[in-house]
Amino acid sequence: MTEGLLSLGIEDLGLGLSGANIDRLELFLQEMARWNRVHNLTAIEDQRDSVVLHLIDSIAVLPIMDQFLGNKAVAIADLGSGGGLPAIPLAILRPEWRLTLIEAVRKKTAFLQHARGKLELKNTEILSERVEAVAKRRPGEFDAVISRAFTSLANFLELSLPLLKPDGLVFAMKAKRADEELQEVSLDQWRLIADEPLQIPKLKVERRLLVLTPMRKSPI
């Protein structure tokens, strides 16, 4: 199975992945494919290469996230985690980060709990709740928030704001419509600090990672 990831260019990301890293990513893919046949976790069905490319798409954000977060024990929330992308690959490759996967659909959180146990991911927690409910219970708890194909950028930012620490970061994984979505964001509330293209080996579509931080008002 390892040759599958290697043939699709995972080494071209320059992340210095170990054999153990790749084995665990492969195990995650196997479990996702197995559960997907029964539980329809994602829109991807039997095209294994597509699943792998979605995984590579997810970990391509790491070089940029590393620039902002480094190897600190930061707390990151993945909103609408679905089948675990990008949070589970990130948890595998950055064990020092603490990832909270928030997903309201119970069949998906059942898979996430299974994957967490199978991969022994002690740096993750799974919450089977709506994002709004988590924000009310745990406001201002997270250093960063990330999401992949969850909702529009404006809505994602609105949901993220109450979860973030004052200097928190939002990592928004976007495709070619990013410019249109940025036009709907209030520059009075958010500052765009990075807009980086993602190089995805053998995937000929535009991918971008937007990094934003809230504009906190100074006390009068």
Automatic annotation (TrEMBL):
Respond yes or no to whether keyword Methyltransferase is given for this record.
yes
Q: What is its EC number?
A: 2.1.1.170
Q: Name its cellular compartments.
A: Cytoplasm
InterPro entries with a match to the protein in the record: rRNA_ssu_MeTfrase_G (IPR003682), SAM-dependent_MTases_sf (IPR029063)
Q: According to the lineage, what is the superkingdom?
A: Bacteria
Q: Which residues cross the membrane?
A: none
Q: Which reaction does it catalyse?
A: guanosine(527) in 16S rRNA + S-adenosyl-L-methionine = N(7)-methylguanosine(527) in 16S rRNA + S-adenosyl-L-homocysteine
The record lists S-adenosyl-L-methionine as bound by G80, L85, V131, E132, R148
Q: Which SUPFAM superfamilies match?
A: S-adenosyl-L-methionine-dependent methyltransferases (SSF53335)
Q: Does the keyword Transport apply?
A: no
Key words of the record: Cytoplasm, Methyltransferase, rRNA processing, S-adenosyl-L-methionine, Transferase
**Pfam families in UniProt:** GidB
Q: Which HAMAP family match?
A: 16SrRNA_methyltr_G
Described function: Specifically methylates the N7 position of guanine in position 527 of 16S rRNA.
Family per UniProt? Belongs to the methyltransferase superfamily. RNA methyltransferase RsmG family.
* Alphabetized NCBIfam families for the sequence: rsmG_gidB
Please state what the protein is called: Ribosomal RNA small subunit methyltransferase G
